[in-house]
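Throughout our pipeline, every protein is held as a single compact record rather than as scattered files. The record that follows is passed on verbatim for readers who wish to inspect the format:
___
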Amino acid sequence: MQCSKAGLNGPSPSLGGVAHLSYRSGVTTSLTPRANVDIDGFAMLNLSAGISTDKWTASLYANNATNTRGVLSANSLEQNDIRAVNNRLSRPLTIGLRVNYKIG
């Protein structure tokens, strides 16, 4: 099969996919007991699927496919501070398309 209908010549395209699961265990954020913040563990799933030929590749991806709101770091602020705890969260679900083309 050739891709001449799409204006592409050459061998048949190949399909592929990847699933990547990572886990971060829970941690305590400080060595100072008064400032400790316990952070729960969480898992994140990244997915991608694509098609490629000798000259080009195209793939769809979903990073953090389950839209997990994992806490990456946290600071316990003083008791009288209205912010209470300052958290940094994992990146939300991100969906996109990657396209690469080899010149030459």
About this structure: Residues 4-101 form one domain. The chain is about 0% helix and 50% strand. Confidence is low (pLDDT under 50) at residues 1-7.
